[in-house]
Amino acid sequence: MIEHRFDAVIVGAGGAGLRAATELAGLHVAVVSKLYPPRSHTGAAQGGIGAALGNLEEDHPEWHTFDTIKGGDYLVDQDAADLMCQEAVETVYELEHWGLPFDRTPDGLIAQRRFGGHTRNFGEGPVRRACHAADRTGHMILQTLYQQCLKHGVHFFDEFQMLDLLIEDGRCHGLVAYEIDTGELHTFHAKAVLLATGGFGRIFKVTSNAHALTGDGVAIPWRRGLPLEDMEFFQFHPTGIYKLGILLSEAARGEGAVLINGKGERFMERYAPTLKDLAPRDMISRFMHMEIREGRGIEGKDYLHLDFRHLGKDIIAQKLPDITEFVRVYLGIDPTREPVPIQPTAHYAMGGVPTNNDGQVIMDERNTPVAGLYAAGECACVSVHGANRLGTNSLVDILVFGRRAGRHIARTVRESDLVAGRANPGSAVAAEIRDLLARTEGESVAAIRAALQEEMMARASVFRTGGDLTSALETIQTLKERYRRAKIDDRGRRFNTDLLEALELGFLLDLAEATVASALNRTESRGAHFREDFPNRDDANWLKHTLIYRRRDGYEFRYKPVVITRFQPKERKY
Ligand SMILES: Cc1cc2nc3c(=O)[nH]c(=O)nc-3n(C[C@H](O)[C@H](O)[C@H](O)COP(=O)(O)OP(=O)(O)OC[C@H]3O[C@@H](n4cnc5c(N)ncnc54)[C@H](O)[C@@H]3O)c2cc1C
């Protein structure tokens, strides 16, 4: 076991982790990342980052706050959304000053485009709020932040995978990580740990999420007795490439592309007369499934079309170059001539590790912080997205709350001393790895993962029922049994991806379980969680956040009130 001591360790080198790291320059800080930093999923973000700059038309942070709350079906904590939308403006200018090559207006200002659910004057019509660099906005953000980190001398441990957290008596002392190149275990002792490990879309079969998005940093604190918040809310993005799930950004519809059913109709005009194809994602995904169920899929099949043809070659080449290239490469279709087959794809986890507005992880419904433990980005739940996130709001969230967490950590570590945690901290992980490597009989990890992803897609995606969720939970229990007997083939020490995929499947199984159990528990429909057996929103009983705890004989649910400041819940119409 190799030991390290740092003031703070950040786990994850996506936008949230790197933005926090830039606040900690001057302290003894490490970033531990299982991927080489610029490979983080933030780099795949396409369409834009929302901020009410008002560069092309009137806009205000208050309008952005309202849209975020309404888009989240009123499960958003309004104080947090207010902070996010106010601070979005300065975080975007900060990126501009660090050299991010945003697209420009003819006057040289940052260009902005339309995106789903973003409106002017509290819902009157679409507004241009998404700042963008073609359809490579996340790539530019990640490169810009990585440069800042290198400039400030942040210490990187690339291709190190966290496998455990050291938490004792309500305090975090550090973590255990596996060095992928050597197979060696490392203990990092630290005054503060920030989880910034991203999402877990890989619990589903059809997803826009990269292979590495297995939710390690969400599953580990749950295993260590901490709660997860609002796990029942998982967003499906309307426009994934059919069967592959690869994302075609909402920027496409922001620039004017439209959804078409098998009868050639722009069906969204019927469901959302004001915003049409730019209604929020939860609603569009649901309406797409309804069109398909009622026989109006393309040729009666289970997909619809996204039509770019009327946009013209120039707009497509300038504003949407990457996604139209994906269509050419993966489907062999030229989107300037033919409509593109699409279906909803699992995209974003609204739930995750609960935190307060400074990124401190909390352990209960009274918001008691876990000393020394922070979370930011997609792995965290602040909650600014409530039951459904608006497009462009994740890039805002990772930067605003990455920055806030970094600032809080900087203050805390200056005032505190490093405390030694328990003896022999890596023993549990070492035993798990030894056990996996020792098994010579058993079925493959890949078969169990495929079965999990199929089950989640079939029974816990856009439409849910109590019966389906109950049977999904039973399937997950069976798969967990099978997982305990699964074997891997590679017994080597260097780059043993077989071993890591097995450990990641363990995380996926836990997160699928937390998702399905929370979905079964919430007997209403809100945002991305749609129960056919409880089709209405039920504010009297369910205007509250779920906290799910893992207990020896099952789960415990507790509830946290939603913070409501200015906007009383209303029916959502678009
Ligand atoms: C295709 C696509 C397009 C998107 N487009 C947009 C968009 O236009 N606008 C928008 O607002 N949002 C968009 N999103 C969502 C947004 O990109 C993500 O939610 C956000 O970037 C997540 O950032 P993050 O910093 O939390 O995590 P990530 O960027 O996912 O980074 C996670 C980091 O954690 C590390 N990590 C994970 N597990 C471990 C472990 N066990 N040990 C060590 N390190 C670990 C990884 O190495 C990685 O560095 C998009 C998402 C996708 C998938």
Task: List descriptors.
single chain, 574 residues, alpha+beta, Flavocytochrome C3, Chain A, domain 1, Methane Monooxygenase Hydroxylase, Chain G, domain 1, eight-stranded mixed sheet, 22 strands, globular, binds flavin-adenine dinucleotide
Please, could you describe this protein's structure?
The protein is an alpha+beta fold and 574 residues long. Among the domains are: 237-345, Flavocytochrome C3, Chain A, domain 1, CATH 3.90.700.10; 427-538, Fumarate reductase/succinate dehydrogenase flavoprotein-like, C-terminal domain (Methane Monooxygenase Hydroxylase, Chain G, domain 1, Up-down Bundle). The protein contains 16 helices and 22 strands. The protein has helices at 15-23, 61-71, 78-97, 137-151, 216-223, 251-254, 268-271, 281-293, 313-319, 321-331, 393-415, 427-438, 445-459, 466-484, 497-521, 539-542, and strands spanning 2-11, 29-33, 49-50, 112-113, 119-120, 125-126, 130-131, 155-158, 160-168, 171-179, 184-195, 228-229, 234-241, 258-260, 304-307, 340-349, 353-354, 360-362, 369-375, 380-381, 544-551, 554-561. Strands 1, 2, 8, 9, 10, 11, 18 and 19 form an 8-stranded mixed beta sheet that branches. A 4-stranded antiparallel beta sheet has the order 13-16-15-14, with helices on one face. Helix 1 (15-23) links the parallel strand 1 and strand 2. The longest helix is centred in the last third of the chain and has 25 residues, at 497-521. Bound molecules: flavin-adenine dinucleotide. Residues 11-17, 32-35, 40-42, 44-49, 137-138, 161-162, 196-199, 208-209, 212, 216-217, 247, 249, 348, 377-379, 392-395, 398 line the site of flavin-adenine dinucleotide.
